[in-house]
Amino acid sequence: MTPESRFLRACRREATDATPIWLMRQAGRYMPAYRHVREHHPLLTIIKTPELACEVTLQPIEAFELDAAIIFADILPPLEGMGLHLRFAEGEGPVIGNPVRTVDDIARLRVLPPEETLPFTLDAIRLARAQLDSRNIPLIGFSGAPFTLAAYAIEGRGSRNYMLAKGLMMSEPVAWDTLMTKLSEVVGAYLLAQARAGAQALQLFDSWAGQLSASDYRQHALPYTQHAIAIARQAGVPIIHFATDTSGYLEAMRETGADVVSVDWRVDLSAAWQRLGANVAVQGNLDPVALLAPWDALKQRTQAILDQAGGHAGHIFNLGHGILPETPPDNVKRLVDFVHEYSAPVHA
Amino acid sequence: MTPESRFLRACRREATDATPIWLMRQAGRYMPAYRHVREHHPLLTIIKTPELACEVTLQPIEAFELDAAIIFADILPPLEGMGLHLRFAEGEGPVIGNPVRTVDDIARLRVLPPEETLPFTLDAIRLARAQLDSRNIPLIGFSGAPFTLAAYAIEGRGSRNYMLAKGLMMSEPVAWDTLMTKLSEVVGAYLLAQARAGAQALQLFDSWAGQLSASDYRQHALPYTQHAIAIARQAGVPIIHFATDTSGYLEAMRETGADVVSVDWRVDLSAAWQRLGANVAVQGNLDPVALLAPWDALKQRTQAILDQAGGHAGHIFNLGHGILPETPPDNVKRLVDFVHEYSAPVHA
Fold first, then answer.
1. CA distance A123 to chain B (A)
2. Which residues of B touch A267 (CB under 8 A)?
3. CATH no. for residue B322?
4. I want to staple A266 with a disulfide (CB 3.0 to 4.6 A). Which of B85, B113, B199, B248 is the partner?
């Protein structure tokens, strides 16, 4: 069985020879090769230069026996195509220069085809696919989910309480619906275009969904995620839904329509699967901090996750959130190899 | 039925005439009266001056028809008694000048009687009780929980990933056990002393427990919370356990031994109660941001929570986390009055 089929088969809950593994932000600052590229190019330049994005996408594939690549991009560039000014400020992360605050701001947001607004990522996907095919490694495309994009568009930067975003959601439900409808169309079309450019699976990052109450999530976020997924669904590739802090309403993650639900470490994998039901694949769920621990501690936690996944077809090993910059690359290598070695006899 | 019995009866899951309500951080910056005191005194001065702590404790009781007061203090002062240097830095929150990083640091931590290390809060409780008794308002004492105190002691300040705290927990389990055992004894004795000084209920704040994986929580945090609660239990007063982001392993919150489990807005109150079992009271769980919304939006969310609590005896209305400084006091008044008015017919 080739690595390609291992990951894609797991997405479809088909039998595999071992548990597939990839890591969120696997192309990132913990890798010397990535830091070398970043020394010469700002983040948005890498994202917008297909050759550089392709190069960085392949770095972790060259270093580790990972079962999937994910195109190097960011969750926020779709907002640029809508007319927002995005920059990555040193030490404070992404900042929107002209955040959305009023009904007029929402009315001005453009909904344009991704071929026009995000051609660089589609080109990067084409380049990366050409290189990955010979290695039989599938490529994942992705986008921020409507709620997370809305929260960023409104707050303009990371936030502790999301007062502005929730404020608009709670006090202006009609404006919120307009904003979220636009976002769901942009996100859906972007995911679809990535699949058509060559992405063999798609992941939706709703990184901040866990800030919402269970009922606000169901009423004000879930329908728009469902809409985006319904659009992307036309491509016929597996769709992964990622969120954190959503263990309280995990059942709703299944209702997004995704084929794979990515869960964080705040829930036991076995408990998560029981609540989600057997007819969905599950991705996760190592605490990223465990990758900084001595091997024994890392191994014990990895083994516990694999043991919980046990007999299930449809487990994709991953972290519960992105890999931390402080992670020793050696630990990544040992983790990847261990997941394959330990799980193979269980799958046999 | 007096307000006192309303809150304490609900803690014991006994029938009440209406749903009791109090709000975490109800004495705080959203109140002009509090800001006035803070203009003249730094935070630690208020906490360490019983007359000032008592005055601030009573401010929200004078302004709103709340069913309980909570002594004005902070979760971190128990660390000072152990030998750590605590200060509240402008704009960055609490900072520990000499954080715990090594086995030697842990060995040096002192376990002293709270009468010696935290007499000011015990005195403040005596003063506040004298004033609250005539109004029939019960007084809640509290402490940070062992894990949250350990995380702060190690990190030295707020953290995004708790890499240092989790790092010590994962790589040095014996040292971690020593640290957590000391903390659980300090916390347990402090809670017990507060009850003996007059606190009629006790709340344990494990504000950061939700950063842990389900299994790390059960192995490395829960046993020490259980130990602290077992010590405090001798006082015979109801014990409330507060945490956020723990919806993934909510069942473990029940295993702490608390009489009341405080849940955040990331889980429906009805789902939470189902998972916790009927033989525990539940506190919560409004999103604090809802208190900044227009009344209609706030009322709708409040009503939904009360509807979910429905027939259950043992619901204490509260926020899922502390009240935000930006909260309009008028909204607090409307919320408190609405909770009483709307719930009374259901309880009748």
1. 34
2. 214, 248-249
3. 3.20.20.210
4. B248
